[in-house]
Design goal:
By secondary structure, the protein is an alpha+beta fold. The protein has two domains: 18-238, Butyryl-CoA Dehydrogenase, subunit A, domain 2, CATH 2.40.110.10; 245-403, Butyryl-CoA Dehydrogenase, subunit A, domain 3 (Up-down Bundle). The chain has 14 helices and eight strands. It has a four-stranded mixed β-sheet with strand order 1-4-5-8, covered by helices on one side. A hairpin with a 2-residue loop joins strand 2 (158-160) and strand 3. It is globular and about 75 Å long. One of its GO terms (cellular component) is cytoplasm. It catalyses: dibenzothiophene 5-oxide + FMNH2 + O2 = dibenzothiophene 5,5-dioxide + FMN + H2O + H(+); dibenzothiophene + 2 FMNH2 + 2 O2 = dibenzothiophene 5,5-dioxide + 2 FMN + 2 H2O + 2 H(+); dibenzothiophene + FMNH2 + O2 = dibenzothiophene 5-oxide + FMN + H2O + H(+). Keywords: Flavoprotein, FMN, Monooxygenase, Nucleotide-binding, Oxidoreductase.
Amino acid sequence: MHIRREVVHRVPTARLPKSYDRPVSIETHDAAIAAAHDVAAALAPGAIERDRAGATAVPVEALALLDNSGLLGITVPVEDGGPGLGPSTLAEVTRVIAAADPAIAQVPQAHYLLVDILAAHGDKETRSLLYADVLSNKRIGNGFAERGGKHAQDLKTRLTSGRLNGRKYYTTGALTSSWIAVSALDDTGRLVLAFVPRDAAGVTVDTDWDVMGQRATISGTATFDDVPVQLTFDYAHAYEVPQQLGARAQIVHAAIEVGIAGAALRDARAYLKEKARPSTEAVRKGASTAADDPHVLHRYGRIATRVHAAEALLAAAARTLDEIGLIPESADEAARGSLAVAGAKAFGSEVAVEAASELFQMCGTSATASKYDLDRHWRNARTHSVHDPLDWKYHHIAAYDLADVLPPNHGQI
């Protein structure tokens, strides 16, 4: 494995629960949620250190914790040996883990999308090979986005005569994955996915990830230099028919934002109860604690309500996807799922940024001390919320409601 820095520093993580010392089989929604809480509890103590370390310390132990939890396989279809759990389970699993460490929660986002892609359109041979690995705790990373073009999907990567050449960025999960799914144009100019082993000759994944938030995702540059490819998939076809792949990918992003919002509210509550002092003006008006300040009470009540609303909207959107299924019956059904998730993602992102900012207004100057690292909530929310534009989500919701215009059939809604 090539990493740009010669030494990979490890960020300590709490020990795995004993049940994770052997292969874990998760069969039910309740078991998946319980596993997510176990993972979150183990991740939480190291979240600040991982945030501060960023790309200087690849979080290999934290990711091993996630990979070995059994959660990577929860959406593998029953007919392929998995439990076939749906979006409601995945959204709640992601939200719980994101409240502990949203960077670690984001790493398998593309993995779950790729599991869905294979379920909807993969051939028997490819499904058999890759699902066997997924159910053995092996993760699939992504090589989708590029720099230098008119937009992130203006691809220069090519798959020619079975050889892959190109350069990708925002490769979340690729650094520590077993497989990387790479989008490319084939000999005919058609969009395909090439599945390549992470350790294949010609594959280089760097730690050149330097951003203000979601630092531990280490979503840096991946280079593919004449890499031989045996597994390919006609990716263009997935978006030539009514699909829920985009919505199911976006529900994970929405859950990450809602998890961050809940974490900011949680830490605000703890700080107000344990550390915050009332302002001088509040004391003059009779307050004895920060929680007695009527303005703090108003702000906390307002943001708590909005966080709970975001959680409810996320759950409702996930239930909509459960109802529709992976392959929608019509374009209208596909639109219903996409727009439900668009609303949850847009609102959840706004609430996460707001909650992370309001934390400081409620808790005061002392809460900005670097030892608490409370600013990570805002940095994480702000960084992740611009993954794709929220304004276009509201635009498509309104266009459908006001003029029956179906949203575009791609993965960003």
